[in-house]
Amino acid sequence: MSKLIRFGVSLEEDLLNKFDRHIKRKKYTNRSEAIRDMIRSELIKEEWTENKEVTGAITIVYDHHTRDLVNKVLDVQHDHHNCILSTQHIHLDHHNCFEIIVTKGKSKEIEELYLKLKSLKSVKHAGFLMATKGKDLT
Ligand code: NI
């Protein structure tokens, strides 16, 4: 754990009031932890824009009865097997499947995998979560 540093921040009262209401809604008990999380979030975005090694999760929902769709979903995943850590497949009902694809690798490749899955015809939902390996964050 690195040394804790205190620093002062000047900002307009209105903005501070908005911030305090915001962090209360987000269940933070103090400003410091809220600010830490905002900084981490910005640093994670930077890891993604700079094509660093990151982690992420992709979710998709599709009807497995749709012709050839399962094969296409599998083909895309096999094309990017080197950045897929695991895939969880949940049968939601008789038709619909929910998949969670956990990824680790260069951000550009993970984004490419996501965009390829999202753009497959008849995929009903595609979601994306940018995460981090956590190594460079405290
Ligand atoms: Ni299924």
Task: Please sum up the structure shown.
By secondary structure, this protein is α+β, with helices and mostly antiparallel strands.
Give the topology.
Elements (H helix, E strand, L loop, with lengths): L12 H13 L5 H19 L3 E11 L5 H11 L4 E8 L4 E11 H12 L4 E8 L8
Antiparallel strand pairs: 1-3, 1-4, 2-3
The protein binds nickel (II) ion (NI).
Nickel (II) ion (NI) binds next to strand 2.
- Global shape: elongated
String of helices and strands: HHEHEEHE
Uncertain spans, ≥5 residues at pLDDT below 50? none
Quickly count the helices: 4
Largest beta-sheet characterization: 4 strands, antiparallel
Which molecules are bound besides the chains?
nickel (II) ion
Question: In percent, how much strand structure appears in the residues?
Answer: 25-35%
Kindly report how far apart the N and C termini lie.
7 Å
Account of the 3D structure:
The protein has about 140 residues and is of the alpha+beta class. It contains 4 helices and 4 strands. The chain has helices at about 15-25, 30-50, 70-80, 105-120; strands at about 55-65, 85-90, 95-105, 125-130. It has a 4-stranded antiparallel sheet. A hairpin with a 4-residue loop joins strand 2 and strand 3. The longest helix has 19 residues, at about 30-50. It is elongated, with a radius of gyration of 20 Å. The model has no long low-confidence stretch (mean pLDDT about 95). Nickel (II) ion binds near residues 64, 89, 91 and 97.
